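Quick entry, no commentary yet.
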Amino acid sequence: MLVRLFIFEDERYDQFFPLTWTRPAYELRCGAWRIRHSIVSHFTQVDRVLLCRDYLEPVLNEKGDASYRVNDLHVEDDDEIYLVNGRLFPPSDLREILDSSGENQLLVCGYNMVGWHGSGRAFKSHATGFGQLYQKGQVDELKRTLDCVEAQVEMPSYLWDLVEKNGAQIERDFEWFKKHKDLKHMFEHSQVDDQALIYDVDRVYIEHGSRIDGQVVLDARGGPIIIGEKVHIQPHTRIEGPCYVGETSILVGGKIRGGTSIGPKCRIGGEVEQSIFQGCSNKYHEGFLGHSYVGEWVNLGASTTNSDLKNNYGPVKVEVNGMLVDSGQTKVGAFIGDHAKTGIGTLLNTGVSIGFSSNLFGGGMVKRKSIPSFFWGGADGGETYRLEEAIKTAETVMRRRGRQLSAAQADLFKKLFELTDKERGK
């Protein structure tokens, strides 16, 4: 008998476009980690399986994490099964909540499926449905065959929900660092210049091999600051907590305000406020980025700046799947898909969405609320970015970081070019 944990993406993955064109929702970063890591932290000694759209399976498998299997529904009758929605902000008693439900009961929160708990034998009877929860109507179909039990949990519905909750999630993640890391001796395995200024050092953690130069300010009075391995923070950088900086990232000066998460291998400068960088992206130059979510392999040209507040201080509407959605928030920035690029002097409108592998140039204000994937142009219009050229650029960019565009990743470009054709047609 094994205890098996299945983390699934549901049909609302498309509400997180353009970031979820290239990853399941549980791979999105919020706080110090991706959402799935927060879920897994509640389960020890379990067999882990990730469930996702078929076209994402090769790339997810390629990540090489041996502790996970992808889209493998094999179970034994006497196994104990936990099925958890990958959009869930897991409460501290997640496992207890699941244990309290029966195997003929579906744990739900409003219209969302939260999870399911039962035997391998019961799982097999619903395996087809469980394996395709990302398909439209599949959750509703399960609701018709299983009893529903309501649970009060947090489940983000859009990218701006992740941005809004990011600071609080960093606070929660820091509690894990306090329990599992040696904060008292962190200066022994990192290089912190005597001229660096740290406020509230008890709420700062600096990982092995990181370097903090002189004239750097780490201000944790507003929340904790977590610095990953081999990070380099250069002079004249000010970081306000709560903040997370991922491994091997370089901060080249400027102001990093609270509520910001910077994933691994990023190059960040200028002013950043309450934003999330998934990883491997550049904002090297001056310019403001606020209340935004930036994917991987993105490059923001010099003086690229976004608006995150309307002049009338009203709630911001964001275009999601061709429809304007009222965020209910007054501070909403830009949502930028993987491999997107902006030229110098690009100005981004409040709540703009920029699709996968799009290239904006020419400067000036981009007034459109949504830029399709594989777009090539600027404020005055554009054309389709040719697939061959997009792949060639991605190969060049990744090679500069010592990475290679794999066959599976190239196939993903081709698949997304096909899936986003209607998007460009509009």
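second:
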Amino acid sequence: MMKRFDRNLSRPLFAALVAVAFLATLHGQAPASNAHRIAVFGSSVANGTGDELGKEGYTGRLRAMLVSRGWEVLNQSRGGDNTLTMAPRFAPEGSPAPNTRYLLPVHPRYVLLGLSLGNEGIANVKTKDEKDAIFKQFETGMKGFITRSRENHIVPVVTSCYTRMDFTEVEYEYTRRMNLLINSWDVPSVNFLGAVDDGTGKWAKGFWYDSLHPNASGHEELTTTFVPTLFDALEKGKPAPAMSTPPGFVRASGAQAPITFTPGETMHPFALVLRARSQAEGAVAAVEGTTLEARTETKKIERGNRGAVGIEETTLSPGRPFSAVVGVTGGVWSYRAADGTTVASTVRADANWHTVVVSHYTARGETLFFVDGQLAGRSSERLQPKRFVIGGPGSAVHGLAPSSQVDLKDLMIYRSALNADEVAALRKGSMLQASLEVYAPLADTRLATGTALENRAQSLSYATVEGAGLVHLDK
């Protein structure tokens, strides 16, 4: 039997609820029901400009990726904003301005800060002093947003600076510097530059809508740089990654696939970083997946008063299975590309530890191979990795056999490519956390098949012991 609603009892209860809601709003505290709400707070790229498919750019694609995990993604961005013009939109002072997207009133638990040096005006000033001032203005503004977010119980995440067609080598250098600086902050970040950079600070061919914005394919590439479980890891309180100090490592001996990692969502640009020591010929790591075929065509797009204009767009489709291998050939560290060609370094395989990096830019179709911070060579290829193998060649049917003995530590897998500056920073001991999905120190003592290895990255992913042939050593 339905009970009658008692208006007399409801009035004080209603008044109390209103008071609680008012106080929560006043102090910027999000209701518990908004615990899984993410607000994207940025400028035109964050707002989806250039996405001719109308999917709201990387913001809409991030929403589609996270919805099944229970996350809500709001778009609170506005075209043209920089750190100065976005600041008043953090929260209204007095009556809210009409048709304005503010941050605080939507009560997010997380905020994705999406600005870049382009709108800040780095290309519009000429002298070094002027550019340094813009650089400092951006740094100060971004740190201000981070501080204000935390003061209002909102967890900040930052997207890195990206490309523009009007950037010269000078602006490109400032962009790379800013991204290294962001990596040093105590805040999670996402590496956009490693997805769409053509190598000179401009958009990769076929991935831009106009000089300032990516097209739909460009927005798609930006989206792949998000670690899918980043917000889940933050929700669980997982701390920022820190370099491992214990001396332990693992030794693999003649194994095909002792350690593996399989990405849970589509991965395009990536970087595989590994410290290894071996004096034996053979494979020490592999990347397996599918090559991507690129088709570039001109699309006619309506641009308001300008009428129909043509934009060049590159779309990617699956090709053939591939296996690329890192190892020792002819006594030096080398990379065997997807087509079987070899990029050989000049670094000898000896009793010393060496840092090898495979950095892949899907959009521009190029892999860079670094050893000990130095570029050994390049390979033209477009890859979609589906499994990483550490300690052996995996399922490769051509190329290197397993190394008879290799010592391994500090495995890192990024969802974005790393440029030469970033590789050099890693070599010097810096922790680059942007788009880092796996950081396994490989100091684990338990190495039974099926064991999930320690992962210090802010993600819920992990590399797994898949096969035999591993032992833990302390020195």
